[in-house]
Amino acid sequence: MRQAGRSLPEYRALRERHGFFELAGTPELCAEVTLQPVRRHDVDAAVLFADIMTPVLAMGIGVDLVEGIGPMVESPIRTAADVKRLRPGEPPAETLEALRIVRAELAADRALVGFCGAPFTVACYLVEGRSSRDFLAAKELMYREPEVWHTLLGTLADAFSGYVRAQVDAGADLIQLFDSWAGILSPADYEEFAAPYSRRVLEAVPAPTVHFGTGTAGLLTQMRDAGGDVIGLDWRVALDRAWTTVGSDRGVQGNLDPAVLLAPWEQVAGATRDVLRRAGGRPGHVFNLGHGVLPQTDPDTLTRLAAFVHEQTS
Amino acid sequence: MRQAGRSLPEYRALRERHGFFELAGTPELCAEVTLQPVRRHDVDAAVLFADIMTPVLAMGIGVDLVEGIGPMVESPIRTAADVKRLRPGEPPAETLEALRIVRAELAADRALVGFCGAPFTVACYLVEGRSSRDFLAAKELMYREPEVWHTLLGTLADAFSGYVRAQVDAGADLIQLFDSWAGILSPADYEEFAAPYSRRVLEAVPAPTVHFGTGTAGLLTQMRDAGGDVIGLDWRVALDRAWTTVGSDRGVQGNLDPAVLLAPWEQVAGATRDVLRRAGGRPGHVFNLGHGVLPQTDPDTLTRLAAFVHEQTS
């Protein structure tokens, strides 16, 4: 998971001296932060250090990232005129350069995972202005001004399609599409207001894709239909049942509750064994947490977890 | 849904003069507020006006209900000693008296729905101290001090069993067990840390029961196994698929996204028709929202919705 770094002292040391977007926007620093969890935990892949709002900055939107709150949008998007003002937005050159640096430094047997927010989740932030439990302002725009909504998501999908293609060109081996808030929608609303735009981005990727969401136990078939070679599962669903729903022609990733890592080791090991047992050694299972690493996680637990999974699956 | 009142001017007028627990703790006022939505919207049932923390006050816990935040617990429960200090707690006499008043005033063909928080959700608030997205303090206690956790939930389950029995004795025709936060748990953790205590309360009810949760699309079989004649569904799952998972020997309720009520009427009608179509007229479907009415909902939309559902199903 992308946020593995938040629990690392070496990441925090850098964050004391640099803002988030400064880190993400300076190729050497971004590459360094991307590589930190691989060095420390010996995991199989590096995940690009970026925020889902990274490509949006180039579209003329002011975003601040506030510790403990998340992205804050300076002028939330609420009208057709707001959408019209969005610039097409080139993929940020600094991010692409960071990917090149990481790919050059990373061992050949480690994957480099590119990263992009799904248009729906990014639009939730752009319309709401900040994180929210139910994103009511976003839902209200979606229901009351569907044409504004569809224009906004189309604009984002076009920009993100260029962004993911450029990431693959720069060395990403696969792309993870992050739809953190898809789970606030009913299946019917997901199909109408979110899926077409996730599909457009996923289809633009000339490489394998992971389609990630949380709270999506009731949306798995719809997410699968929107695309993704691997479907992300949070912990709110049993992996074996979810994989049956998704279908055996796709892979699945995730499933361990990040909060379990706050428990004593025996429980971490037990919960991990349970995930692996449900995966049953079938090809196409990527072990991962169901969502980001919690900042208060002991980094040594993550290192031990990575070793434990390697040991159990080798 | 219980919170229907929040959108009503007649409820707000009362709340200007009385605090929440004052309303809930004064039988005549509690009865009045319980009856308001029935009078205005002509719905088929009255839902007891109470908070999930209501029975906890009698156990010696100080709770404040803060507008826009929810329950705030004065001294969160974190240790075995904290749990030991809890008093058994008699069912609040004022609530029972309110039920008697409502039952006497309510037409014979309208149901009176009693109301009780599930031990898991109440424990989340008691340990965390207040609402939270992921209730990490509660999960940490659950993982690190399981014996404290189980003692706390056993104590709550015993108190709530007496509370629901007393509600039925006072005139409630059925009981809704409210497990708002069950959806933060993995299915395995739900079975271990929550289900036994919901089961104990549900089994104590000498009347039909509704077992309600949100974000539970991946937990439906586990919730069904814990009990409930009717299983609550939020909007994050398609009703027909969810009912198949729950099984045809149980009823289901809910499923309309409360946010849809902020949309123009045609969309409200369309989403409602979709829920009814998926229910397919099978006996055992209780039309409802998937969660509480949002405060900004136009009361006239609710009235129109109740009439529309009656018309569509008559």
Describe the structure.
Two copies of one chain form a homodimer. In chain A, α3 packs parallel to α6 (93-105), α9 (146-169) runs parallel beside α11 and α11 (195-203) crosses α12. The first copy, chain A, starts with 8 loop residues before the first helix and ends with a helix. Chain A is built from 15 helices and nine strands. Chain A has 314 residues and is an alpha/beta fold. Chain A has helices at residues 9-17, 20-24, 27-41, 54-57, 80-84, 93-105, 119-128, 136-144, 146-169, 187-193, 195-203, 220-226, 239-246, 265-279, 299-313; strands at 45-47, 63-66, 70-73, 111-117, 174-179, 209-213, 230-233, 251-256, 285-289. At the A-B interface, α8, α10 and α14 of A face α8, α10 and α14 of B.
- The quaternary state of the protein chains shown equals homodimer
Per the principal axes of the C-alpha atoms, what is the gross shape of chain A?
globular
Compute the number of helices of chain A.
15
Secondary-structure-based class of chain A equals: alpha/beta
Q: SSE order of chain A in H/E notation?
A: HHHEHEEHHEHHHEHHEHEHEHEH
